Amino acid sequence: MSSIQQSLRSRRLGRPLVWGGYALLLAVAPLVFKSGLSLTMLSQMGVAVIACLAFNMLLGQGGMLSFGHAVYSGLGSFFAIHALNYVSAGKLALPVSLIPLVGGLAGMVFAALLGYVTTKKAGTPFAMITLGVGELVAAMALMFPGFFGGEGGISGNRVVGKPVWGISFGPQVQLYYLIAIYAFVCTAAMFAFTRTPLGRMLNAVRDNPERVEFIGYSTQRVRYLSFIASGFFMGIAGGLGALNFEIVTSEVVGAARSGAYLLFTFLGGAGFFFGPIIGAVLLVLANVLLSELTLAWLLYLGLIFMFMVMYAPGGFASLIMMNLRLAAFGQLRRLWTSYLALGGLAAVMLVSAGAMIEMVYHLQLNQALGPKLTFMGAGLDAKTPDSWFGAAFLLATAVALFELTRRHFVRQWDTIQGEIEHEIKAREAEE
Amino acid sequence: MSAALELRDLRKAFGRTEIIRGASLVVNAGERVAIIGPNGAGKSTLFNLISGRFGLSSGDILLGGRSIAGLTPFEINRRGLARSFQVSNLFTRLSVFENIRCALLWSQGHKYAFWKFLADLTATNERAEEVLRMIKLERRRDVLAMNLTYAEQRALEIGITIAGNPEVILLDEPTAGMSKSETARFVELIREVTVGKTLLTVEHDMGVVFGLADKIAVLVYGEVIAFDVPAAVRANPRVQEAYLGSVLAAQQAAEAGH
After folding, report:
1. The pTM is what?
2. What is B1-80+167-174+201-258's CATH number, 3.50.50.60, 1.10.3720.10, 3.30.450.20, 3.40.50.300?
3. Which residues of B touch A203 (CB under 8 A)?
């Protein structure tokens, strides 16, 4: 009994601590990362956090795999930027800080319209319909240049009217704090949703839709209402994105954007509420930093994604939670040597594979500059066998050693898990 | 006494094969009825028709005097009929407590609410704890349904079925796959949790049937050939010939062999 009471007490204490920490993180981040680039990235992260969490309302909590969710954030963006331009023209009296709600409303209305068709089905048919709807809207975006702005998109200016209390949203840091407040409130609202009757029935629909029909609920209605809620938050993210960039182009409703939400929500971890937050941070890091670093960034992203799906299908969130469980039982230190070895070897694999990828890219794209390039401080010559042999040898060795270490690690891991199960049983028996 | 459940000349065909061929039955409120019959007689199909899983080919089903033919499973459930499944049909990634709570949210009037917290629904939570005690899983409250033992899963299956306080309960082979001692305890549990309710159960174990049922309906090739108190059904020559004779003989032989 005592351990249950203890865990209850720690949970009661833990929750305000976690939310307080989250608020603090959002508040302090721009004081630590002050440069223009990091402010832009932090703003984008805030937007992506809302979008990935909203996406995961369907994927993680409802078992619905949407391939076209950028439709709702994207349409939210377009309605928000038009609303902003109406405000600028004096045709609409609305504070700029509420423009994202216009996006949210648009996302919600379109989710209600399009979702009515989509959520009639579950599983693979659902995924296929969302794909179709996504393509439909993406095609429409190019067919109606009046609303979607064609190739050039629609631009706006978020500095409208007189500043209120010195806030004009001109400086990026002011917009960041607006995004941070939205991100915090939306995160809290989406977390609250998981604790309501509808939110819990959404989990039930994910686990066993058939049984749900026999306890009084229409699975279709549960999916539909959750889809609308998700669309609302996607729209808010879209509206914030419009304020952030002050330009909205048709690619915001496109398949690439939808794919990014899916990929990074999965990488972050769809099985835990906070997983998509990690995913959102990674999304922006990859889109902004990795794409600066190398032309082959999508290729690296694909490799990392494959690697994660194979070895850690629960994403980063599940890796964290599994190790926290180990730490709670005081077993984590038994694994640190294995982690060190696995991490080191993974890094060597990445670098050696990277060297070869960069050489291929160099040969294909920068041939005029000659065969020589520098990669991570090392001089490579893409035309000599030495560089190729060196990289290939390193990669093969690292892969072999990684596999050996991994097998050892899996055995170690299973032993520890067995011991923990044993300990839990012993504790239960003591009660 | 009014009829809690009435089947009127039910028919169900899959393609050209007629599985249920004019089944009729009147079950009074508070009665416990066991449906028996050889394999392939259509017992499970009958349950699927009553609970709305399959549509009828013809005939009518009345629940408390009102027709439920053509309604969806959730509409039928809202009118006070709940069923269990032969293969445990649980919310595997939710805890035992959450399984029960989900099962009674609708009956407690919470519908699709997203503006109130589950933790604040005092009456609902108390009822969920009560059901947990009834099915004797209160010590397994926070275990995920997929981590339960087989017998515990069967108990949770019953718990989900009765949680919403339905008037009519259909149990599809509740003791299937259980050992003899488990079965005896489980029959006692079923008796306890269905007090005052109308119960229909499909069962193969004749010990369970005669121990639990007030009345027995014998289903052979999609027709109810007998419906009476156990003693009368046992003595019925048509039943002897069609089904029960062979089963009872086999059981007596097995008991004599021990």
Report:
1. 0.91
2. 3.40.50.300
3. 91, 93-94, 98
